[in-house]
Fold:
Amino acid sequence: MNCRHCNAPLLHTFLDLGYAPPSNAYLTKDDLNRPEFYFPLRVLVCDRCWLVQTEDFAQAEALFTADYAYFSSTSSSWLAHAKRYSEDVIKQLGLNNKSYVVEIASNDGYLLKNFVAAGIPCLGIEPTTKTANAAERLGVPVLREFFGESLATKLSEQGKKADLIVGNNVYAHVPDINDFTKGLKALLKPGGTITLEFPHLMRLIEGVQFDTVYHEHFSYFSLFTVSKIFASFGLRVWRVDELPTHGGSLRIYGCHESDSRVTDASVDVLLKEESIRRLQSIETYANFQVYADQIKSDLLAFLIERKREGKMVVAYGAAAKGNTLLNYAGVKPDLLSIVCDAAEAKQGRFLPGSHVPIVSPSYLENSQFDYLLILPWNIASEVKEQTAFLKQMGVRFVTAVPKLEIQ
Ligand SMILES: [Zn+2]
Structure:
């Protein structure tokens, strides 16, 4: 396989998680009587542009038939994050009723509703029907298409170039990163701004966040690599913010290469830090599997020991992260009997691969158990607060990443 950005041959494995089912393919009871599909899950690193990327495999189309739709608005902290961003960026860029804002992967309108409320013309691009319908109910205009160069060219020919293009957690999920970036260039008005948010590879490595790897997550970015990709299509990163979301994300601000804005010091500072942490050195990537394997072994040992003691472990959070971890560790319901999740669409279903049944969080109030394994470690403190009553019942909290911790 060659690099999806620079086409150099990919010679180095960053992480090999074996085989895994699609992370969002939650199963019904009937599905448990059918065969389940597993796909290779390997991540490679390019030693020329340092893009970390999932490996291609045969019959990949079959992976994306799962019809589960994630609604951004179900997370109150994410809604607050979106509102703060909207207020800041409107002020900072001086957006008004003559501006035009385009969000790629606008989901259920969680973000653009703030621009609608401020009277700023906007457009969401979102191929998933269920979420697009929800956005339209909030007054957000939506185009039900995938974004790329051809759509961007069509929009710009219709005079719909954007003063602001927003992409939150979409850049890392795009298979054809070059086509998407060319689209950003084609859609951006002269003097316009692009902001993209994505998990930061430096934090992934530092926090051994190997469970953020799943098939739909195609790219894992450093600022170095994103700057390189932008530069090869006539764009420039002129500012970067570090955010605490998803275990450490970046929000980059892009513009046309020739834009009059000077590049902010934040860009150089972070590029230097990435270089000090040797993000352009193959050893950094070659050692990562060892740390991931340690987490897997520790979790498995913990679950087996508890079972031998006759103790019961319950999990919280039926999200992609947990699925990657449980499937890599080979955990089944004999070791982990149940997982609670607030999303009603998941309740009554089973986790892909591990087949752990998903129930409502009300289970926690009415049941006897000994440990609560919090799978989404990025919201562990939020979960602990919400379930503080368990402490009085003698339940102990467990997180597995970056290392096994029992409180
Ligand atoms: Zn490359």
